[in-house]
Amino acid sequence: MTSSKDEILSKLRKQSVPPVELPDLEAPELTQRWIQYPDPTAQFAEVLSGVGGVCYQVKDIAEANQKLAELAAFSEARKVCSQISGCGDPNVSIAEITDPHDFEDIDFAILPGEYAVAENGAVWITNDGGPARVLYFLAQHVALFVPASAVVNNMPEAYQRLAFASNSFGTFMSGPSKTADIEQSLVIGAHGARSLSVFLVEDAFQTN
Amino acid sequence: MPSHPQLAAEFIQDKDRAHWHDQSLWFVRSKRDKAAQQLPEWELLREQASQIKQHTVSRLPDLLEEFERNATARGVHVHWARNATEHNEIVHGILKKHNVSRVVKSKSMLTEECHLNPYLERHGIEIIDTDLGERIVQMQNMPPSHIVMPAIHIKKEEIGELFHEKLGTEKGATDPQYLTEAARQHLRQKFIQAEAGITGVNFAIAETGGFVVCTNEGNADLGTSLNKLHIACMGIEKLIPRAGDLSVFLRLLARSATGQPITTYSSHFHGPAPGQEMHIVLLDNGRSEISGSDEFRRSLNCIRCAACMNTCPVYRRSGGYSYSNTVPGPIGSILGPARDPKANSTLPFACSLCGSCTDVCPVKIDLHHQLLTWRKEIRVKGFLPFSKRLSMKMMSWMMQVPRLYKLGGKMARWIVPKLPRFLLYNRLNDWGKQRELPEFPKQSFREWMKQNHDKQ
């Protein structure tokens, strides 16, 4: 008896499908036409606010801490996690958690993002798939810290920077969790984060 | 199975609801237009996307093998299913091996196509749809009526009533914010209790062996990051050759679907997390037959954005359920007959051939041409109803004899305005349903030409 795989493949192989060439996405006549913005950071901030997020441009972690303290979601948070050194005064240690379920009641998570995309307000985050991965989605509120120099114009530029060799997980996050499934009314905070703040930080910072 | 015209007639009986449905979808279509206009390179992107998809289908067997090789190297278990039965057995087998009794699932039209939920429920497994729209229709024991907005046809008063009964919300509450919060609390419990997560797949990458799942709610991510077992179910046409191709598709998908610049979460999975097990089920279920057809091959380009149904004047006015097909609207009216031309013989006729679907399709499927081709196929296969065949025959007979056509027109112009309403507007006159016939002119075009033009 032939396997399902063999049957599907042999059925496909018997067909004569006319060849179609794969376009070269790196060709200059294409890449020249991808959208550019005079000020990608301003564009990113504008699009992010359009999808329900907030962007803060700060010099360093100290300034970020000040901004955080002004956020109601942060100052009211009882359980806080942070993967950014010296940021947010966390009271739950990520390193000690082995089961993602233990993050069930995290109110505020401060997490790293790799870079931001101006055209759609998305931040690329990546993770080895350990328990901390769930924080991006399970925490009630999320703040992402991204180097201010890491703002690209568009998705083709974003993918040029991506490699999928090591980490098992990565996502583009664009604003907080949302839904419009009830009569097309936009509601922020469906399953995941009820708010998303993106901090573009000028000085270099450390993750832990 | 009732035909599309029958079910559509039931839907439009409630005029207010039909109008409301039409407006809701037109609102989404307008958002799509605005989003598309934000990118000057939009048409170029559509061209690229179409070429990439056509290339993929032309090399599908090789690319599928490449995908399997790379995914396996990353520690993913890859399964192949010829049809829905095999698909469901494979998924059940994996769950059984892990003694799983509670599953959370993010939106996947493929598992709807396979009727996975009732299958697993019959085997004693609780399976909860976690997309809010899908959860709503699941509570109603109904399938989605739209592939991106599963509950687009339901009013908030009805959802309020449903949640009052099932989730204990206040009676009479209709505020979307309040109802969504109730669903959030309910579903978060389900996420915490679940032992496995099932997701669909928006794109799978041959080159890397990874795949991408797009949601706005983050339900796919919660479902998979809390569990040790992740099963992803995909149709073989979801493949793309390179990771870089996503830079084209992710720019098109959400803009075409809901007018958003990108979905809130576009998650890339490349192998299981530490201590996790990851499975991918590749399903054919008729797709390989479509790939062999020169006429309909391009329908495999589809990335399930639903732009064609949002713009379709027939879908908007007849509702998703009138198609009796997992995928409704223009693309569903091509895919449905491809699977079962007899059962879906009325779908290609649920189309005014206005071409709006083709205009908005981000992967350039020639939808209205394919629908026209399906009409011919259905005629050839003998599934055209007698009434249509007869009227076509009579029309063709009359058209072939100019004098008869002339006489017929003259008689109609004389007699129709004199007829009482009950003779004109009855079951036999499909054109008089839901609308008034136009006023009959005093003279024919031919007579008018003679009088006004030929003289000069």
UniProtKB/TrEMBL annotation, chain A:
Source organism superkingdom: Bacteria
InterPro entries: FTHF_cligase-like_sf, LUD_dom, NagB/RpiA_transferase-like
Secretion signal span: none
Pfam family, one: LUD_dom
Protein's name in the database: Lactate utilization protein C
Species of provenance: Gimesia panareensis
From TrEMBL, chain B:
Source taxon at top rank: Bacteria
Alphabetized Pfam families for the sequence: Fer4_8, LUD_dom, LutB_C
PANTHER family assigned to the protein according to its UniProt record, in alphabetical order: LACTATE UTILIZATION PROTEIN B
NCBIfam families attached to this UniProt entry: LutB/LldF family L-lactate oxidation iron-sulfur protein
Listed InterPro entries: 4Fe4S_Fe-S-bd (IPR017896), 4Fe4S_Fe_S_CS (IPR017900), FTHF_cligase-like_sf (IPR024185), Helical_ferredxn (IPR009051), LUD_dom (IPR003741), LutB/LldF (IPR004452), LutB_C (IPR024569), NagB/RpiA_transferase-like (IPR037171)
Keyword annotations of the record: 4Fe-4S, Electron transport, Iron, Iron-sulfur, Metal-binding, Repeat, Transport
Protein name per Swiss-Prot or TrEMBL: Lactate utilization protein B
GO molecular function: 4 iron, 4 sulfur cluster binding; metal ion binding
PROSITE patterns in the cross-refs: 4FE4S_FER_1, 4FE4S_FER_2
Organism: Gimesia panareensis
Single biological process term from Gene Ontology: lactate metabolic process
Gene symbol of the encoding locus: lutB
Record has Acyltransferase as a keyword: no
Keyword Transferase found: no
